[in-house]
Amino acid sequence: MKERTTLNKTLKPHWVWAIALGSSIGWGAFVQPTNWMSQAGPLGVIIGFIIGAILMMLIAVSYGFLIKEYPVSGGEFAYAFISLGRTHAFISGWFLTLGYICIVALNASAFALMFKYVFPGFVQNFKMYEMGGWDVYFTEVIISTAVLIIFAYFNMRGTGLSGSMQFVFCLIMLLSVFVLTGLVGISPMSGIENVQPVFNPEVTTLAAIISIVAIAPWAYVGFDNVPQAAEEFNFSSKKAFGLIIFALIAAAGLYSLMILATAMAQPWLGLVSEEHIWGTGAAIQHVLGTTGLVILVTALSMGIFTGLNGFIISSSRLMFAMSRAKVLPEIFSKLHPKYNTPYAGIIFTAIIAMLAPWFGREVLLWVVDMSSIGVSIAYLYTCYTAFSLFKWSEDKVKDPSKHVVAPFKKILALIGVVSSLTFIGLLLIPGSPAFLGIESRVALFIWIAIGIVFYLLKRKEYNAIPEEELRYLILGEEKAKVNGTDVV
Which residues make Cβ contacts (< 8 Å) with residue 28, sequence separation at least 6? Predict the structure, then answer.
């Protein structure tokens, strides 16, 4: 049997926490507040995000257990294999790969959007065409491409560099948000009265909150980057659960503070009706002037950088794991001769993400909306796997080496399964407050069709791998013969 390729153990605990937090925040917390408030009102958004964070914490129980038991690259790809076999592993990995690469692309385009707001005269040059109602400028494409190249290079240099950068970026982002919210709070031009009405008066309170809860898989996607990096921990994998919970609490706090800062700056109904290209930027600049805008741009830049960095790490590790299991081409599991990083996955992620700015931001948003389904499917597989491994009592345990008696955790895993199915239902059931638009459904159908074709092409080779060899390649489990008996 060919020896299994492995990654260096260089990631420290605070770096992993920063990967989870920075990936969860990304660009949305700083660009989307006015869009979210138009749906649910300030308090509706905050309640929705808090409920979403609690649901993610319930799902994180399953992640914490599986990371501890199976600290390997691949995350949800490996977990689906454990409980449901190789075909489901491919399905999970396929959807998650799309979600990760889309978020990389959207963060890169958000960086160009920030430049477009701060330096409109510079960015709005060399208009090429209009797509989806969005003017596409060559300057925007160049900015997005440049930031992708830079972060791909940093990631190829090793997780030690990318992990330490992630932690520094997160600290700057946290400090910027705290300072910004404090300055808005004490400004005589702002006030808590601007937050009224606290809910969107045009929809019911329940519908408002549900519309935000439905995007929780997208808003908090990033904490699930932790299992993708598990093979590179230089600490006990038992710590992973605590790091995820801490990151989710911090993410919910940051989302809430940015909603509050935006809403307090000026009456939010008026702000929403003005339809600014960047509503939060306009509100902060109105109250704090250039100083406030600089702090906001700093926070947004750090959010974008942490999102880019975290998801390039995760997408490349996921493709590395799938390639190691021979379901993706072998090139993705080859490591850089000097830095020992999965360079092909890093380059591939950057190149695919570079295509996105050419299609306009509106088109990209359709794809990202659709990718929420992929993330929810990955959550579902993870929670189901944990549910199958947790047992109610001793007499239900068939294999003590693979099952754990933990009735309470089994209930939490079941809640995670139901939550994941609920997220999927909210996005796919007609009439739901979060039902995907026709464009997103078309994009989802195309991705599913491509996946079916790809799987049919690889099925024969993939299914020919013996079960024990595949467990070794995916999970690192190796059996050896000792006196004619199999031992692990």
Answer: 218, 219
Cis amide linkage into residue 197, ω under 30° from 0: yes
Tokens of 191: 């006030």
How far, rounded to the nearest angstrom, does the alpha carbon of residue 329 sit from its chain's CA centroid? Answer: 24
Closest by CA position to 102, among listed 430, 333, 444, 344: 444
Backbone angles phi, psi at 346, to 5 degrees: -65, -45
**Which pair of tokens denotes residue 487?**
């031992």
> Alpha-carbon distance 115 to 278, whole Å?
11
Task: Look at strands 404-405 and 480-482 and give their pairing.
Answer: unpaired
CB neighbour list of residue 25: distance below 8 Å, 6 or more residues apart: 173, 222, 251, 254, 255, 303, 306, 307
Q: At what angle do helices 33-40 and 279-324 cross, to 10 degrees?
A: 100
Rg of the chain taking only CA atoms, in angstroms: 22
Q: Which residues contact 334 (CB under 8 A, 6 or more apart)?
A: 5, 342, 343, 344
Contact 301, 115 (CB under 8 A): no
Tell me how far apart the alpha carbons of residues 383 and 385 are, in angstroms, rounded to a whole number: 5
Give the pLDDT score at 484.
36
SS3 274: coil
- DSSP reduced 3-state for 222: coil
CA–CA gap between residue 367 and residue 372 (Å, rounded): 9
pLDDT tens digit string along 19-45? Answer: 999 999 878 899 889 999 998 999 999
Long-range contacts of 2-5 (CB under 8 A, 24+ apart): 4/324, 4/472, 4/473, 4/476, 4/478, 5/324, 5/333, 5/334, 5/335
Q: What pTM did the predictor assign?
A: 0.88
Q: What is the DSSP letter of 131?
A: E
Q: What is the mean pLDDT of residues 391-395?
A: 77
**How many whole angstroms separate alpha carbon 198 and alpha carbon 268?**
9
How many of the other CB atoms lie within 10 Å of CB of 270? Answer: 9
